[in-house]
Amino acid sequence: MAESMAITASTLSEYIGPFVFDTKQLRSVLKTHLPSYREYDPKTWPLISAISISSSGEDYDGLKPLPWKVAYTTDIAKKYLENYGSTRKRTTSVRKGVAMHLLHRYFPANFNEFGTLKAEPGMSIREYNAWVRDVIGAGGSDGSAKKRKVAAPRSAVTPKPQSTTAGERRESFATDSMAESTWSDSPVPVLSTLRSTVSADTAFREIMEMLAGRPAEFGSEADLHAQLYQTQVELSEQTRRAELAESKVRQLEKQLRERETEMRHVKQEADAANGRMFEVWAGMRYLDAERREESDVQEDGDHAPCAETEKKQ
C-alpha cells in the first residue's frame, strides 16, 4: 500500500528568481521573494530546476555543492550525487540520541532516510513528520530552530595555561568558550582547523567529543551541523579533485609508457631497415664488382689474337 504523501513534485512550486550557491545567501533571497518560505518546513520549500540555476549565469554540472533547505529536480540531485557520492554512507547526529543520513538531513525531498535518490522529489507524511521531529525537536513546530542561551559559570573566566595535549585543548576550549553568554550563528572557531583535515569523519568525531564534554546544551546546534556538513562537502570535493588528478597522472604515465614502447618499436624497425639497406648496398657493390671483372676479362679476350698475329709477323 502506497504511503500518503505530504509533499509531491506537483505540490512544490518551481522557483523562478535569483539563485546563488551559498545556502545563507539563498535563504535570504528566498525569504524576500517567497514570503511563505520557512527554512525548516519542507512543505514551503521551492523546487529548484536547471532553469532556476541557470539564472546564476551557469549551467549546473554537479561540481559545486548545492545549497540546502530547498528541493531539487531529480536531474540536479542526480548530478550532485555523481560528484559527491562519498556522502552516500555518511550519517550525522542531529541532536543528542538522534542520527540521520547526511543526504536525507539536508535534502529530504530528494533522498530518503537511507540516502537513496528518490525517483521524484517529495516526502511521505510519515517521512515528513519524522524529519521535522528529529531536526527541529520538541517545541519547534513553528518551523524555526529555537536558540538556547547558556549562562556562563563564574569559574569559566579564570585564565588557563596553554594546553599541549589534544584532550587538554578540548577541555580548555569547552571551559573558556562558556564565558560567552550565547553562541552566535558564526562557525565555531575550531571548524577553521577542521577544514584543513583530511578526513571528514575525524572532524565529526572531534566536534561530537566537544559536544559530549560540555556541561550544558548550547544554541545554534543546527548551524553547527550545517558547518560540519559544508566541511564534509568541501572535503569530498577536494577528494574528488585529488582522485581526478591521480587519474590524470596515471593516464599520462600510461601514455608515456605507450610512447616509450612505440619508440622502441620504431627504433627496432629503423635498425632493421638500416640492416636491409646495408645488405642491398653490399649486394649492389658485389654485382658492380662482378660486372667490372667480366668487362675486364672480355677486353683481355678481344686483344689476345691481335698480339699473336703481331708476333708471327
Automatic annotation (TrEMBL):
Coiled-coil regions listed in the entry: 235-276
Region (Disordered): 140-185, 291-313
Bias kind Polar residues: ranges: 174-185
Keywords noted in UniProt: Coiled coil
UniProt KW Coiled coil keyword: yes
Name of this chain's protein: Uncharacterized protein
Protein source organism: Corynespora cassiicola Philippines
Organism lineage: Eukaryota, Fungi, Dikarya, Ascomycota, Pezizomycotina
